[in-house]
Amino acid sequence: NLSEKLQRSFKNLRGQGTLTEENISEALREIRLALLESDVNLDVVKQLIEQIRIKALGTQVATALSPTEQIVKIVNDELVNILGKDTARFKFSSQPPSVILMAGLQGSGKTTTSGKLAQWLKKGGHRPMLVSVDVYRPAAREQLAVVARTTGTSIYEGKLDPDTTHGTADVLRLAKEAKRDAANFGCDILIVDTAGRLGIDKELMDEMAELKKLLNPSEILFVADAMTGQDAVNSAKAFNDLLAITGAVLTKMDGDARGGAALSIRQVTGAPIKFLGTGEKPDAFEPFHPDRIVSRIMGMGDIATLLERAEEKLDRGKAENFAKKALTGEGFTLEDFREQLRQIKKMGSMKSILKMLPSVGPFAGMAQAAENVDESQFSRIENIINSMTNKERQNADIINGSRRKRIATGSGTTVQEVNNLLRQYSQMSKMFKNMGGGGGIKAQQRMMS
Ligand code: GDP
Ligand code: MG
């Protein structure tokens, strides 16, 4: 993946503290190659590189991040920028049935995706109907009929004389009938699977334009095979110029597609990627999460590391100050204790950090674990320390029974919670003292983890 390549090729940049014009240029050469290898289209790569160059040159020197890490972060942010932060919304028309027009080259996965979409919509409480307007290949219409049967979806089959040749007029007639049929049967969505194209074929493109005019679809989804990488861009552009697509579906993401097509399509059409196809079965389908594809391109482990490093940077001065006290075991006050809590809070809530991780592979289940983190505990402890006088914070020994009562009342907690905190604090300072010289920082990390 990109991040690995960057790490490898940037080895020689290590040790240099800052981003200079020179090492940025060197890095950009590598990024360019890496993006091309990730199947991002050449023109898109050029644009990206320029944006990254501008950002990198304008970046303040951040001491805790190496030049490599700074650039990886900039690239990451830029990719997220292009793809958008959030999952795109799916549009419905106010007048049912909403029509979803499927567009794309032959073999891209339109028919398969039509079935997946139907299934996904049904799960969401909708009543979709399918129709194939591929009048040129009986096998194509039969394929959709099979999909409809296996997913238990309504389908409008219509009538076509098998002995005559068919054209756009039949396509439009079928589409019109299907829309009426959907309305009659109380289906709120009509998914229109269209004829395949081997390339950008004028006749079939005109037909698409007419279908759009006739059906007034709320979604025009461009279906692209993620494995086609570079080529996806040209067809995406052609379809978008003609139809103004509302979104794209990237299929075959279960293969070793690198995800570059997502970036290219988004950059060239401006339309969001809305779904991913991840297999041949009807349920191998999911809404597109921009951050996940960026992880895929960049390498997910590195992003996690990077975040950690960035957070570290935020707190560095104070952490060093704390480490000094922890190392000597002298002068560790409740004031310092409170500061540590604030540092942890600054790293973002544990919840938000855990949720940033992809929900696949080794990270599966993390998001769920995040639900169980009790963030309020941090605030309660901080409130207790806030309710102490300066003198008390500097010298915990003077906090007697009546002071404890006052602090509990002032912080809206109980005497028992105050006692717990003081015990924790005293254990911590004792531990630092015992360790005297070495290991203080490690101990802190153990305590805080
Ligand atoms: P169409 O010509 O655009 O209608 O494409 P099809 O829906 O017929 O799909 C072409 C081939 O790609 C079929 O063999 C599908 O099973 C396969 N296919 C479609 N989507 C996916 C996917 O997400 N993953 C995998 N592995 N195969 C897919
Ligand atoms: Mg098809």
From TrEMBL:
A cellular component annotation (GO) from this entry: signal recognition particle
Xref: SUPFAM superfamilies: P-loop containing nucleoside triphosphate hydrolases, Signal peptide-binding domain
Location(s), subcellular: Cytoplasm
Alphabetic keyword roster: Cytoplasm, GTP-binding, Hydrolase, Nucleotide-binding, Ribonucleoprotein, RNA-binding, Signal recognition particle
EC assignment: 3.6.5.4
Stretches assigned to the SRP54-type proteins GTP-binding domain: 272-285
InterPro entries, alphabetized: AAA+_ATPase, P-loop_NTPase, Signal_recog_part_SRP54_M_sf, Signal_recog_particl_SRP54_hlx, Signal_recog_particle_SRP54_M, SRP, SRP54, SRP54_GTPase_dom
GO BP, sorted A to Z: SRP-dependent cotranslational protein targeting to membrane
NCBIfam families per UniProt: ffh
Family recorded in the similarity comment: Belongs to the GTP-binding SRP family. SRP54 subfamily.
Protein name in the entry: Signal recognition particle protein
Organism expressing this protein natively: Granulicella pectinivorans
Phylogenetic placement of the source organism: Bacteria, Pseudomonadati, Acidobacteriota, Terriglobia, Terriglobales
Gene name as annotated: ffh
